[in-house]
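for the record, two folds in this file. i put them one after another cuz i was lazy. first one right below, seq on top, structure tokens after. the second one comes after a little note so u can tell where it starts
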Amino acid sequence: VRRLTSEGIGVKALVRPGSDTANLERHGAYVVRGSLMDEQAVAALMRGCEVTYHLAGLTSRTSPTRGDCLRANVDVTERVANAALTAGVKRFVHCSSAVVYGVIDKPPVDEASPTRSDSPYAESKVMGEEAIRRAHRLNGLPAIIARFPGVLGYGSVSWIGLLRAIGKGGFRLIGSGRNRTHTVHVSDLLEGLTLCGTVPGIEGRTYNLASDHPVTVSDLVNTIAAELGVTLSGMRLPALPYAMLHRLNGLTYRSTGRELPRANTYELFLSDKVMDIARARRELGYAPTFTLVAGLRDTIRRHVELGEL
């Protein structure tokens, strides 16, 4: 909202009836109160809009059920897409997640790489993408899908669990730490999303939006420890038991629809989660600039201000 209003663009935001809207209104957003389950509220939100950024969704942080995820990330996505079609929006940017790739066997992954539904959240994000592609193919929804990894920067909540675990001391790395992972700084992500909303002639495309380079998990963990002033233990835990638990969880979920407790908690340590951003560079002109250290400092500063670390 700050990014768009700072450029003189009018912004509407759908907000739950009981939510504090002071921050949104301070930055110039026009607030529509209602629920994403309310078709009339969503229709009112869309009227007069040229571009829709659909970022609302239920994440895995609260351990939601499969039904919760499907309602929030599939049913709501279809409702919002239908409202956008009715309102005649010129561009619909659907925000997805790198979670759709699961544990990656052959890094890096690009937009054509296979997806996996190994958890309620991942399954709902895959199905949400399918709903958007269907609306584009059958009804002409001018849609773009943006996939991105965990977000760093002021306001991010993606890394609070890892930050707290390292901050308590005694944290031990799982595996060698030489496997790589991708992040993205919020400023780079906003640039990518803005390009998805404005570059002409890209309807129907999917884009990976991530940082310029992946980092090793060891570098990520050590950088967090340094920023928090914590000394890490030199002892490490073997990765194999966690990898076996994760694979068993995927098989269990696909066959029964149920997850094993905490099985997805350790995914960061189990593979190279590297995203190919060549298409976004080539077709959008996407050029991320922020470093891991800058992103982590922004993230930690915000959590410290809120008393969460």
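(here's the note) second protein begins now
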Amino acid sequence: MSASWQHHIGGAFAAPAGGETLAEIDPRSGEASFRIARGNAADVEHAVTAAAAALDGWRATKALDRGRVLTRIAAAIRVDAEALARIEQVETGKPLPQARIDIEIAAQYFEFYGGLAPSIEGETIDIGPGKLCYTLREPYGVIGVITPWNAPINQAARAAAPALAGGNTVVLKPSEFTSVSSLRLAEIATECGLPAGALNVVTGTGLEVGAPLVDHPGIAKIAFTGSLRAGREIGIKAAQRILPVTLELGGKSPDLVFADADLEAAAHGAARGFTVNAGQACIAGTRIYVEASVRDRFVALLKAAVEQLSVGAGDDAQVGPIITEPQFRKVHEYFEIARAEGAEVVTGALARDAAGFFVAPTVLAGLPQDSRVVREEIFGPVCAVLTFETEAEAIRLANDSDYGLAAGLWTQNLARAHRVAARLQAGQVYVNEYPSGGVETPFGGYKQSGIGREKGREALHHYTQLKTVIVTL
């Protein structure tokens, strides 16, 4: 596999207009790995032009045939799965088994939306005699997709597959920290018969590539996954252009443990919930609220579950490194904040490890609801344990957040499970498992966690626009 990668535009690799490159860093060692093209506005122009040229042909392709292309891409991803997983491992530092899961999920997105493509349909509406009223779902056009570094090929496929299924073409800007798996995905897609220009990848920084992409008049919609700060900036730009957006932003998700729960299962589930992808997941359950009567027993079980998790660069590790050095520094800044706020360390380390960007899974206690560690997204394997006395208090504390991406609850009382799930202000609620779901389940947030939905059939509604036709007979 090449150590140097160019943009993928118009069905082929393309040198950057400025002739510059950027180095990716292997977070397991802190050493340089791949080199990628450093894009600029000229490269964005090239990609948008290619996507626009491919649009009419792709949208006119029979939906069944579009679906066949996507399912071929899914099959090819699986054929190339091991090589793709190795790329993801170098880029993200994830243990190989976890990288393989992300590759399989990417394949599932293309498989799922390939099957759904022929089912994109409108409806007829009875508006009285002498009239025929019907609706059509049509593509937006060229979709700009901006993805983060925590799950690169997974998130690229999550947006590109439904966008392509809907007859759109795509210009994808992956994170400059983790771009190579997305470039290889575009290459695979072209090899599988996706028309040249239907999926383009331009690499580089947010300032030099992301901003020109959002500003480009040829872009009909933006799909962004990333930080709240960047999402706000994109939202402002989009509002000025009246540009449709899908925004999947941050989270500070609550995980509620009631006294009647299977506490051992809850402890293991909660441990997984805040350490998934080394805590670099917007859905991570980092606010754990425990009913006061079982607090001490649960904390002991959680401590034991967390301490069973192995951290390291090996394929058998369960927790890999923080993916970027800036994020690694940010996690340690929050350790300083935790000290200042008087946190009790149940387990973990408020100190930097010797090599690589590794952080020991850390459980904190003794912090108030209004502390920064409880309220702000850390994006690392760090959680805070708090208590509640009543169901009503648990719901109030869980909802006391600017975010609303996910929530979990653990109980053996079926009525309580449905009652609490209905009142939690979150786009996803996981009961007795954390996290849960698949490519079939809609995904998105309440409040500042975002706008719109990815995944599931619902995503097709966000990558197509509705037209109403009224005929007087």
